[in-house]
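To: structure desk
From: M.T.
Subject: fold request, one chain
Message: Could you run this one when you get a chance? Sequence is below, nothing fancy, just the single chain.
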Amino acid sequence: MVNPRYTKPRIKGVQIHRTFVYGSTATPFDPSQPRPQGIPPEHTHRWTVFIRPLTPEQDITHWLKKVQFKLHETYANSSRMVEGPGPFEVTETGWGEFEVQLKLFFVAEANEKSQTLWHGLKLHPYGPDAEKQRLERATVVSQNYEEVLFTEPVEAFFDILTSNPPPPMSARGSKGAKGGKQTSLAMSRRQATERTAEVPAKDSKDNPYSQEKEIAEIARLTEAYKKVEAMIKQEKGLLIEREKKREALAKESQG
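Reply: Done. Structure tokens follow.
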């Protein structure tokens, strides 16, 4: 049988990005956050694992249909399927950390295979402020920025991606006019070769990912690269000196 994925026409030479965030939050039980009745006494935290838009204004349901969260096998119904419109998340309680499998299923128009991510559930504070967070009994947030890349999408899905949000009416061509579809498609192709889901310019309380943060990270990596290059150059110099000394000693021993 022919795979239908390869029978539908695709838009050649086009790649479209869509951004999202995946991760988890975990809050310890204490007097201010008491353990609900019926929760096992050994459970120390309430946690949520999720896939979310990068910003509240973004919509991911036009390309993401459902998400399967595969929890540790000790949980009842450890494989949880969450359908759109979401929110795409699972909340539970527990005492241990483990790897959660997140399987993304795209809308039918995408004609794409599912994609799988893994997230390490974090219950306990980590990083430079770990001790402070532990004392404050703060919620532990562990999340990652991610992009899904649709390469040469089928025409129906291409239309969905490029019309969310819709382009200006003037760029879509006249409805019913000869060549209108081709004009809209050509302009959308040019738009799709660039980033189609931009990262916000600045950080916000709910979103730590931004162009500003990206620029700072690039600068930090550039500086680190320069330091590593200098260290390599220094080590090469020391190696040359050691090699010269070794050759001198070898000549002395032969003489």
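Reply (cont.): The helical segments are 130-136, 155-162, 180-192, 211-254. Let me know if you need anything else for the meeting.
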